[in-house]
Every structure is written in C-alpha cells, then in structure tokens.
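Curious: explain these tokens?
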Amino acid sequence: MKTKFLSIMLTSFLAVGLFGNTVYAKETDSNNKKTFYIGSLKKGDLMLWDVCSQCSNTFSVTIRDDDTIYADIDKDTSEKELDILSHDSAFYEGGSNLRIEVEYYGSSVNLKKAHASGAIKNEKKKTIGYIYTYNLEDFDDEDYNDAVITLTSWKKHG
C-alpha cells in the first residue's frame, strides 16, 4: 500500500511539473538585446501579436523560430508618442525555438523587463491558448512602456 501511494504521489508531482498551469519562457539578455523563448505552442496554433512603444529610441522586434520569420517590426523614428507598431497574426509552423527577439539601437540602452505569461483557460478549466506579455524599459524612468510586446495563441481557430 505504501509503495502504491508513493508511486501515485511521484506521478502526481511529475504531472504537475510537466503539465502545470505555469508557462515558462527561456530568455537571453544583453544591455541592448533580449530574446524571449516561447514554449507550449503546437504546430497549427494561431498566434496574434501586438507591439507598441512610447520611447525615443529606435529598435526592432522579430518573432521567429529556427525555420520561419513571422514578423519583423521596426521602430525607426525617435517619436515619443504612443505608437502602435504592429497588430498581426500567423499560424505557428512548428519550428524549433519559437522566440521574440528585441534589439535596441541606442548605445546607452540598458534594457530591463517586466513580464507575465500563462495559460488561457475556458470555463471548464481546459487550456485553450497561452499569453505572453513583455514590457521593456530602456532607460531609468521605470515606466516599462518603451516596448510592449504581447503574443497570444489559440489551439483552435475559426
């Protein structure tokens, strides 16, 4: 009985660890570049992204995997007003290492981020998609609106 209980507990812990509600995304950093690796999406999932900015620096955002570039977005003016740079969508082709790459072109940039991510669940608690939001700060006013990138995905479309 004790062995059965331990087996069930071990299986439960593994299931929570592998299939829990938390969605993690790996990332790599430097002063002017950040790469956010996106997990949990499957080939054929619908992706929707929004990118906006309120800063004077110029930068680029690329949404890609190892095989496909889904979006290549540039902020190429020093305009400080709120600027919606992209609102678009694509179907995930299933390539390895789905990621969002951000590169700021200013030499004095020291990027910091605030982020949120998680599973989108319906009323039956079934996961129907995922959301990832990254708010970047490029200086020291700590408003975290210098680049705001949101990627949302759904398993079913139509």
Observations:
- Residues 22-154 form a domain with the Jelly Rolls fold (CATH 2.60.120.400).
- The chain has one helix and ten strands.
- Residues 1-24 have pLDDT under 50 and may be disordered.
- Helices lie at 2-19.
